[in-house]
Amino acid sequence: MELPAALYEPVDGGFRATDLTIGPWDPGLQHAGPPAALLARAAEGASAIPGGQTVRLAFDILGPVPVGPVQVATRVLRPGQRIELLEATLTAGSDRPLMRLTAWRVRSGTYDGSAATAALVPGPAASRSEVPEFFTTDVAYHRALDWRFASGSFNAPGPAAAWTRPACTLVDGEPMTPLQHLLVMTDAASGISAVLDWTRATFANVDLTVALVRPPAGEWLGMDAVTTLGPAGAGQCFADLYDATGRIGRSAQSLFVEPR
């Protein structure tokens, strides 16, 4: 099977999404992971702190993102040489933002911190490869990453832990950075730990927050995710995030739940 080389191709005025961005709900709409990574790329590119680290990324998903041309804009909300707050927004042919990111970045330094907490799940070498059964097209988001499950499954309900490595780049002609990889992956935390049947219910997240104690590093990144549903059509998904040397942070998602 021949796959696109990247999630996005640069075009005049922005980027064109490839089929690797297709999400599970509609083949004409993107999974939120790739545009989240594209916004993080833009925010880091607008940073005025050389060598700084992004410590919190808060994404609001304001509308479905179509598979096609998109545009990204940035602005500095709080400038600083040690601490800054950046905003990046994504549109698709109109002024209406479809996704918005606010990202805190801080200056890096050398300090005696806490020891890294090792992942409480088997590593990628001891995990099993798996492909989800619920995507309606063969070339879609799930092909953008190599998935290895340490526990749980794409295709069965309940908590799950998975490792991934990139099978493509984010933007054609550029390497995918570990932070970009982390965001492509982490929006799927509520997908790997789903508690409802994909064919009978929609449980799309309206946001994604990622808090990091240090930047991710290396080829393989992992998440250990749990989804909980409330009694009134809302849910939450939380995941611990790892690289090969230990825990790097945590993610949270709010879910809108309704019958399909």
Automatic annotation (TrEMBL):
InterPro entries: ACOT8-like_C (IPR049450), Acyl-CoA_hotdog (IPR042171), HotDog_dom_sf (IPR029069), TesB_ACOT8-like_N (IPR049449). Transmembrane segments: none annotated. Residues 133-257 form the Acyl-CoA thioesterase-like C-terminal domain. It comes from the Bacteria. Residues 23-105 form the Acyl-CoA thioesterase-like N-terminal HotDog domain. It holds the Pfam family 4HBT_3C. This is Thioesterase family protein. It comes from Geodermatophilus sabuli.
